[in-house]
Specification:
The longest helix has 18 residues, at 147-164. Helix 5 packs across helix 6 (102-111). The strands form four sheets. This protein has a six-stranded parallel sheet with strand order 11-10-9-12-13-14, sandwiched between helices. It is an alpha/beta fold. It is 43% helix and 12% strand.
Length: 433
């Protein structure tokens, strides 16, 4: 998987269900994530290289180093060699590869034996470009913006991004990958028109989301919500204290609003801090709502925090979603799916302009699962939207939407069909005798 906590979380449901079907699941990634993945109960193999062209080089090297690396496919060659060693050691039946790191799929297609199958895991909604659909990176205004206008905007944005990325390894990814496929006679149908990363049209791909969350779904393989409710979360003493007090106040008629902007909010400190100040002023003026904010306490150490607001470094999200009334979120797809699972209306405030948060916000609004907001919105605007989200009408919206989603057993059946070439039916029967 792409080495981000959200990408790992997307795959946990799949991994746990494959283990229920008698498979042994092994994750491979950087040392920094070994402790967390083993804590979740999975085996983990440390890899010293990163997926080529996935933006990870930008994090680890300055501009001059990236420019030097972009002049030759050395990074890709080193990755291929480590993937070769890992495949020889593990001898997997199936290799699941994050669709966000498709260069790994190209490499493994060259390295794998005849008995090994590759399946791509899409942690976003579909990234296929369809004229009738809307880009994941754009806000969609029903009845106002057309798909053509949105695709034009998407094209302008990606052109600017390519210019910004000049000198990076990703800038030469297409040339290096195409050359590798050609020289090794690989029968891969590469799709360079996909959003965010290139796709491989003739390789099996699973979208780890419900089809009904799409605006105009295609023929891809969708599983469902894929929420791992067995994910381990830390319950600190501070949270236990808050939990007890807020549950008591909730029983007295208060509503609980949970606010989290994911794991990358420190990259957007000014915007987030402005919004948090809005929430704090709102809480001071109108104490009928209780707020749990998931933020580094150092991030807001100089702010005046009302009694109705609690700020915690670590919040067990699955636990909080069981009893909160509204969630304010940046629009990451994992959080959207978890809110749907626990019937929690969302106020989506997209944080990142480059990827799928704006598109997710639009889909939440268009499916009547929540509302969207902006970091510059006033206290009055935010309060009005929270009031609307606590209206019982949203409960019926969730009931209707959830009725369109496959249940747990249907998701497992779909998983068995998608991976049927490894005789999952036979394994499943043996595992359940």
């Amino acid at each position: 998987m792409y080495p981000g906590v959200g990408h790992y979380h997307s795959s946990f449901w799949l991994a746990r269900n494959l283990e229920q079907l008698a498979f042994e699941c092994v994750y491979a990634g950087p040392l920094a994530h070994q402790k967390y993945l083993t804590y979740q109960g999975f085996k983990f193999v440390v890899m010293n290289t990163c997926a080529f062209g996935a933006g990870l080089e930008r994090r680890n090297h300055n501009f001059l180093q990236r420019l030097i690396r972009s002049l030759a496919p050395r990074a890709f060659s080193k990755r291929i060699e480590e993937l070769r060693e890992t495949l020889l050691a593990l001898k997997p039946d199936i290799v699941f590869i994050d669709s966000f790191t498709p260069s790994d799929a190209v490499a493994i297609a060259h390295l794998k034996g005849k008995q090994t199958e590759i399946i791509l895991l899409q942690t976003m909604l579909s990234t296929t470009v369809r004229e009738s659909d809307f880009p994941l990176s754009n806000v969609v205004t029903p009845g106002v913006t057309s798909s053509r206008e949105n695709w034009s905007k998407y094209s302008r944005t990606t052109a600017r991004q390519r210019l910004y990325d000049w000198g990076s390894v990703e800038n030469n990814e297409k040339r290096i990958i195409k050359k590798f496929v050609r020289e090794n006679n690989l029968s891969l149908d590469l799709d360079w028109n996909r959003q965010f990363r290139f796709g491989i049209n003739n390789m099996n791909e699973i979208i780890l989301s419900p089809k009904s969350l799409e605006l105009h779904p295609g023929a891809e393989n969708y599983l469902g919500l894929c929420v791992d409710v067995n994910r381990k979360e830390s319950l600190s003493a501070a949270f236990e204290t808050v939990f007890a007090r807020f549950k008591r106040l909730k029983s007295e008629g208060h509503k609980v609003v949970y606010c989290s902007f994911g794991s990358q909010y420190l990259d957007h400190k000014v915007k987030v801090l402005k919004f948090i100040n809005t929430i704090l002023r709102l809480a001071a003026l109108n104490p009928k709502y209780l707020y749990i904010l998931s933020l580094d306490e150092k991030f807001v150490c100089n702010l005046s925090v009302p009694h109705s607001v609690i700020i915690l470094d670590v919040v067990p999200q699955l636990e909080v979603l069981k009893w909160c009334d509204v969630m304010i979120t940046h629009g990451g797809l994992n959080t959207v799916k978890e809110c749907i699972y626990f019937n929690v209306p969302m106020l989506v405030v997209p944080l990142d302009k480059k990827y799928d948060q704006k598109g997710n916000a639009s889909r939440v609004v268009m499916k009547d699962l929540g509302l969207s907001a902006d970091f510059s919105d006033s206290e009055y605007s935010i309060l009005r939207k929270i009031d609307k989200l606590t209206d019982p009408v949203f409960a019926s919206n969730f009931e209707r939407f959830i009725a369109t989603i496959p249940n747990e057993s249907e998701c497992i059946d779909q998983l068995r069909k998608i991976t049927g070439y490894v005789e999952l039916d036979k394994i499943y029967s043996t595992a359940n005798k």
